[in-house]
Design brief:
CATH architecture of the domain at 149-248: Alpha Horseshoe
Structural class: mainly alpha
Radius of gyration: 23 Å
CATH topology of the domain at 149-248: Serine Threonine Protein Phosphatase 5, Tetratricopeptide repeat
Strand content: under 5%
Shape: elongated
Distance between the termini: 71 Å
């Protein structure tokens, strides 16, 4: 039916867009290439069209084209939050450090987006030569906390952000900053094992080895398996501390 409508009127944007969306949903190599042709034929593309074009490129295993599409779309629709989010994801996925840094620059005052940008930045900091991104992740988490309203309902979100920032600063070997965030998280959620874990690490680094290791061991015992795995992966960034733990 869509083919018939477009044969009768090739400029029917609604029919062409619907056919492009249908072809995208079919998700075969042939249908995806046909979807790109339909999207390219639209005379007045939208931000949502750009999101789908990027998705099609990703499904065709062309992350560079997806990233280019999203970069152009963000320039055209800078206030579109979903485009900003997808641009960040695509830049980090493609391993394009300059564009990743561009993607997280000038984000709107939205704590969810800032937190997500910080998470992506911190994860990408594991890549070779990207250690300086940790400071950027710290800044983004701080901006997210500033944007987050002070209210009872935000307590778990605030705790999650300060603990994520503590993990970043553990990797930067900044025990004072880690201790401050751990203390804040413990005040927000007293039963949170990660707070005790980070506080213990900071104590060890500042010379209180026995007390610090006791807190770390207690936190690891209290944590669920997924949280315990995450804490171990975090502490693996500190080879000296891991060796000390393994020796006990």
């Amino acid at each position: 039916m869509l083919d018939t409508a477009l044969t009768a009127d090739p400029h029917d944007a609604d029919a062409r867009r619907l056919r492009a969306e249908t072809l995208t949903a079919l998700s075969t190599p042939q249908s995806l290439k046909a979807a790109l042709a339909d999207f390219a034929a639209l005379l007045d593309p939208t931000a949502d069209d750009a999101l789908l074009v990027a998705l099609v490129h990703e499904r065709l295993d062309n992350p560079g084209a997806a990233l280019d599409t999203l970069e152009r779309a963000v320039a055209q629709w800078p206030g579109h939050p979903r485009l900003r989010q997808r641009f960040m994801e695509a830049a980090f996925k493609a391993g394009d450090l300059p564009k990743a840094q561009q993607a997280v620059r000038g984000l709107p005052d939205d704590w969810r987006m800032l937190e997500y940008a910080a998470d992506l930045t911190a994860a990408f900091a594991d890549a070779p030569g990207a250690d300086d991104l940790l400071a950027g992740a710290d800044d983004l988490y701080t901006m997210a906390l500033v944007s987050l309203p002070e209210a009872d309902w935000t307590r778990p979100f605030r705790a999650r952000i300060v603990l994520a920032r503590a993990g970043v600063n553990l990797r930067r070997c900044l025990p004072d900053e880690v201790a401050q965030d751990a203390t804040t998280a413990a005040a927000l959620i007293p039963s949170e094992p990660a707070a005790g874990f980070f506080l213990g690490w900071s104590l060890v680094k500042r010379g209180s080895v026995a007390d610090g290791l006791a807190k770390v061991r207690a936190a690891l015992r209290a944590a669920s398996e997924p949280v315990r795995d995450l804490l171990w992966r975090t502490i693996a960034h500190d080879a000296d501390f891991q060796d000390l733990m393994n020796a006990l």
